Amino acid sequence: MKRVARHTRSFFRLLRGMLIDGLIRRGRREEMPRSLIIEPSNICNLRCSCCPQGSDTPAGGRARGVMSRETFLQALRNIDLPVREICLYLHGEPFLNKNLDFFVSQIDRLGKVLTTIYSNGYNVDLTLLQKILAYKKVRFSFSMELLDKERYERLREPARYEEAVASLSAIDKIFAEHGRKYELTMIAGEEGGARDSCDWLFARYRQLKRVSFGARFPWPEHFYTGHLEGNISKRRKPCEQINGGVSVFWTGEVTACSYDFSGKLIIGNLTSTPLSRIYNSPRARAIRRDHLFRRWREIPTCKHCLLPRFASKTTSVNRPGES
């Protein structure tokens, strides 16, 4: 009975989406995004097998570069929505942009906006990290599979495990100097990963607050990046990316999907257009309508995308005493 009730609720949610969001609102969204991703760079120092950066075209066909101060300031001026969080990451390593501390300083001026930075943590610029930690409203997460040397070096090419361990030790020392905490994210092994083996990490890295585990997910057009066995369901869910927020490339261009590695779902440019207009631009509304009416196969990037069927969940382990 519970299964029937769940499917019934799902059916009526889809029907409501088609009738109200599709026909009446014609793809317009009244609820604006509260979180915004801004890409400091689409260049990376690693070519990981779990990411399209490990492919033969590391930038997915997009021009490679770093966001300038001018582009960032123009984009920031056009954020006319009450954004609560700005995430500085996307398809590259944020610390390769030497303006990263300037970006954080400008976000800090916005008041109650949180800055989140995701990094691979491999040989990061420690001087730049020191500058960023001068600002309080910044959250850090580093992607490093340090529980297993073989797995780390297989995933994070061409990184070396011993250097990664030393790099995190240096990072941990700086966080301790500032009295700050950080998180680690890890890709669990196909058998589920060593989720109960984090004690030595918490013992060695005193500022480590939480370790999160998840499966390798299949990027659109780059399915080899994902661990599909046991994680693909028969039932396709509504696309969370299309119904969620938007992401800003280092050029200022805005994409409707944070997994749009090749830049094929551009809906505007934040250096010249307010975010509110981009979010409900004709292109953005057309993409939503195609998904609402189950016409995603007409969108090349979405046609074979497995993410709406990817059912993997994230598991987190907190430091004892941390909530």
Description:
This protein is of the alpha/beta class. Helices cover 32% and strands 14% of the residues. The chain has eleven helices and ten strands. It has a ten-stranded mixed beta sheet with strand order 9-8-7-1-2-3-4-5-6-10. Strand 2, helix 3 (100-108) and strand 3 form a beta-alpha-beta unit.
Topology (SSEs and partners):
Layout: H1 2-24, E1 35-38, H2 69-77, E2 85-88, H3 100-108, E3 114-119, H4 126-132, E4 138-143, H5 149-155, H6 161-178, E5 182-187, H7 199-204, E6 208-214, H8 240-243, E7 247-248, E8 253-255, E9 266-269, H9 275-279, H10 282-292, H11 300-303, E10 315-318
Parallel strand pairs: 1-2, 1-7, 2-3, 3-4, 4-5, 5-6
Antiparallel strand pairs: 6-10, 7-8, 8-9
Helix pairs in contact: 2-3, 3-4
- Structural class, by secondary structure, is alpha/beta
* SSE string, helices as H and strands as E: HEHEHEHEHHEHEHEEEHHHE
- Spatial ordering of strands, largest sheet: 9-8-7-1-2-3-4-5-6-10
Number of helices: 11
User: What is the residue-averaged pLDDT?
Assistant: 88
How does the overall form come out from the CA principal axes?
globular
- Helicity, as a percent range: 25-40%
Which blocks of ≥5 consecutive residues have pLDDT under 50? Answer: none
C-alpha end-to-end distance: 35 Å
Largest sheet: 10 strands, mixed
What is the number of strand segments?
10
Question: How much β-strand is present in the residues?
Answer: 5-15%
Rg of Cα set: 20 Å
